[in-house]
Amino acid sequence: VSTQSTGDNGGLKMAGFGSADLCAVELAEWARAGGHLPAPPAPHPGLVLVCGHGWGVGRSEWSVLTDRIAAMAPELYVCPDWPSHVTISTLSNTVNSGCARAVASRAQDEELLFRWQEAFQDAIQATELEEFELLATRVELTPGAVIVHFHDPTGTLKILRNMVVEGFESSPELQELDRQLDGAVTKFHIPEIVHSSLARWMEDVDQTRADQLLSEFERINSEWTVWAVRVRSIRLVDETSCWLHVDPARAVLQEWGLRPREQ
Questions:
Q1: For residue range 185-229, what is the model confidence (pLDDT) as tens digits?
Q2: What is the 3-state secondary structure (H, E, C) of 131-194?
Q3: What per-residue confidence (pLDDT) applies to 124?
Q4: Phi and psi at residue 106, in whole multiples of 5°?
Q5: Region 177-182: what's the mean pLDDT?
Q6: 15 pLDDT more than 50
Q7: Which single residue of 55, 84, 224, 230 has CA 20 to 30 Å from 67?
Q8: In the beta sheet, which residues pair with residue 138?
């Protein structure tokens, strides 16, 4: 199991402050051509457990922020609102050739998807989790991405992330797959932070340019007002295109609704 503080850059070597991400370049070309689904395929299919899927849709906070970022930083591919999400865990990465779905046979892949669904079904039903809110506290420009940081005041996301580890540990079938795939199943990633990615680099960016942009992000944060995202469900998603640029009707393998919170 791995952890990291910010999104990676698709496995590309960093040059200066940030480096062009091949997925971002492909998605930008796709967007310029109209952005109709399906989006460009990821290097490998991924598997992600997310919450707040589509939280940016119809929200002025998303549109105002992303419009501002796009205007000041043409080097960035700014995601549309509909793939917006907060990652609970990346169970198999789209760009890591050593992750489970990259090395599994078709039969093993089907087994992997089924067993993760089974593990989460049991865990979520047992806990009877309620809907919860995440509070957006600031935006950050990193060498890998632009991210919104969230605060999890109820601690529910931490519970959900613990479920990933517990789900694996309680599933003999997942453990057997891990043995068959030489440890690839346990390469699932649990972020250390609660965040949502807004943009990725399409071009290499040196420190001088980065310093200019960092000043702009300081200005955005100085004007920031905290706002909330209500999480009503958890989704397990077949990530056939990078950063959940997928059709939910086809890609959502399972959705678990959370119990409405009593007022």
A1: 999 999 999 999 999 999 999 999 999 999 999 999 999 999 999
A2: CEEEEEEEEEECCCEEEEEEECCCCHHHHHHHHHHHHHHCCHHHHHHHHHCCCCHHHCECCCCC
A3: 87
A4: -60, -45
A5: 98
A6: no
A7: 230
A8: 149
Length of the chain, please? 263
User: What is the spatial distance between Cα 257 and Cα 263, in angstroms, rounded to a whole number?
Assistant: 18
First to last CA, the chain: 37
pLDDT at residue 3 in the model: 36
Q: Which H or E run contains 120?
A: helix 106-127
Which amino acid appears at position 176 of this protein?
A: E
With pLDDT > 70 as the criterion, what percentage of the chain qualifies? 94
Note the pTM of the prediction, 2 decimals.
Answer: 0.92
Residue 78: closest CA among 173, 148, 5, 176? 148
Q: Which of 137, 156, 151 is nearest to 221 (CA)?
A: 137
